[in-house]
Design the sequence.
């Protein structure tokens, strides 16, 4: 018997495979009402045969079927069409099935029984994903070593170019995470010392009693545990570049020794008596205000002038927001390559949301966020709702964290949805727990029905008020079907006019 209940067309957008004939019929009719062309199959084998001639834009598959199951079909389809969104349906809502589906690259996991309108909405999302992936550029552009198109970055690029033939000491200033080491490496790579080592040392990360040895090395027996001679970072960077990060945290006694090296060009290993020539270009960096530290006596003024031969300020990310899309694309591609997966892409709404974030951690924070999205965003195209909760709270898209002590509730049952004072919004879940406890202590029965009715009345009533009684718009905002909200309005006796 043919699996298709209507004539299949080459342009069918959605393919549905399920051994349950009733599921195929329901989805086929719903897709038809939604003006989406479909093709239905009774087995995975039929899908694989059809793929030899035609390609869908979305595949909806049951997870357990005779012969090849949905997970195996998912793997086979993904090997042929990596960008095809696949929705896995199952009546077995268990962790193993969900994990297997997502590990296999499923677009979404749809437990049975499902609301048909929500299923259609999910399929539309998958279609949108499929179209965007099909229209996206497949091969990423070659990425330069430093990304930036903002005017503030042009000064940085210009300085790197002008310093390419110079051995002058450079002081890079900028907030944490703004990319100071990246710029230092670029200065080295474009200098006459590029063929020699680039050695980096974070002076804030080394205990002060070991920092001297790290910088200058030590002789055997110089101190307890010094069982062999060790070359320091100055020697390791011979002929190349020594990058001293967080120079503002360098202890005073080390500042004196570094000043001597920069002024005389020679240094001694710890415990040594033979002067060694320092042949390394020094690039220092700090997130601190060294001018202020000098005024307060916390940083040597003479050392500051030695380091501050050429100062290069690196702008924070908030001063170069136009670079965020370029940087995000780069970091998403790099994370995907590291994890061996397809690179995520940002919808226009998600990209606009991203460019409005504060990013106190600058480029490093953006990089970490892109890695987080690569791992945890459910679909290939990242939407606003895929971002971490704290970032959506930052933009006011979700409620702020709850107040730890909820206010007392009045006795009325409907008080479960009462608003807290505007100055300190309460946690409605805490209010709900308090109300449930109160009703239980009073010996009430039928609590779940009463509270559910109250909850729906407030949510649907608030949505209708917000859109001035337009039910279709309220349904869309709440994620309900038009028939569902009409039925709820009638059941809950909400007095609002129709569209």
Sequence:
């Amino acid at each position: 018997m043919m699996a298709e209940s209507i004539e299949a067309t080459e342009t069918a957008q959605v393919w549905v495979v399920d051994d349950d004939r009733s599921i195929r019929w329901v989805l086929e009719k719903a897709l038809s009402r939604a003006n989406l062309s479909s093709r239905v199959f009774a087995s995975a084998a039929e899908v694989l045969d059809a793929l030899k001639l035609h390609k869908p834009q979305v595949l909806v598959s049951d997870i357990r079927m005779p012969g090849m199951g949905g997970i195996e079909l998912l793997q086979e389809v993904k090997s042929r069409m990596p960008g095809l969104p696949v929705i896995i349906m199952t009546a077995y809502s268990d962790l193993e099935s969900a994990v297997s589906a997502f590990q296999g690259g499923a677009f979404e996991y749809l437990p049975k029984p499902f609301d048909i309108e929500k299923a259609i909405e999910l399929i539309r999302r998958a279609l949108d994903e499929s179209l965007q992936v099909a229209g996206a550029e497949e091969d990423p552009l070659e990425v330069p070593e430093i990304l930036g198109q903002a005017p503030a970055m042009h000064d940085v690029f210009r300085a790197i170019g002008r310093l390419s033939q110079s051995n002058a000491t450079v002081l890079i200033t900028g907030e944490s995470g703004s990319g100071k080491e990246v710029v230092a490496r670029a200065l080295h790579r474009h200098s006459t010392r590029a063929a020699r080592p680039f050695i980096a040392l974070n002076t804030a990360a080394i205990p002060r009693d070991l920092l001297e040895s790290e910088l200058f090395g030590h002789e055997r027996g110089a101190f307890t545990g010094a069982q062999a001679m060790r070359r320091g970072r100055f020697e390791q960077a011979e002929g190349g570049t020594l990058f001293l990060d967080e120079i503002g945290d360098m202890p005073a006694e080390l500042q004196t020794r570094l000043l001597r090296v920069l002024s005389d060009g020679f240094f001694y290993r710890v415990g040594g008596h033979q002067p060694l020539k320092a042949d390394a270009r020094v690039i220092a960096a700090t997130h601190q205000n060294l001018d202020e530290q000098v005024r307060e006596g916390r940083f040597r003024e003479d050392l500051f002038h030695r380091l501050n031969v050429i100062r290069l300020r690196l702008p924070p990310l908030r001063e170069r927001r136009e670079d965020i899309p370029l940087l995000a694309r780069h970091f998403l591609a790099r994370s995907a390559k590291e994890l061996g997966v397809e690179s995520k892409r940002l919808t226009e709404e998600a990209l606009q949301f991203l460019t409005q974030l504060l990013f106190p951690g600058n480029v490093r924070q953006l990089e970490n966020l892109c890695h987080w999205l690569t791992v945890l965003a459910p679909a290939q195209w990242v939407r606003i709702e895929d971002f971490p909760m704290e970032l959506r709270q930052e933009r006011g898209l979700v409620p702020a964290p709850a107040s730890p002590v909820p206010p007392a509730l009045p006795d009325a049952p409907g008080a479960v949805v009462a608003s807290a004072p505007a100055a300190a919004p309460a946690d409605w879940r805490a209010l709900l727990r308090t109300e449930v406890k109160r009703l239980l202590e009073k010996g009430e029965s039928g609590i779940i029905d009463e509270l559910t009715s109250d909850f729906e009345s407030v949510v649907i009533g608030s949505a209708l008020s917000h859109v001035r009684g337009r039910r279709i718009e309220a349904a869309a905002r709440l994620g309900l079907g038009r028939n569902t909200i009409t039925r709820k309005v009638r059941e809950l006796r909400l007095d609002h006019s129709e569209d």
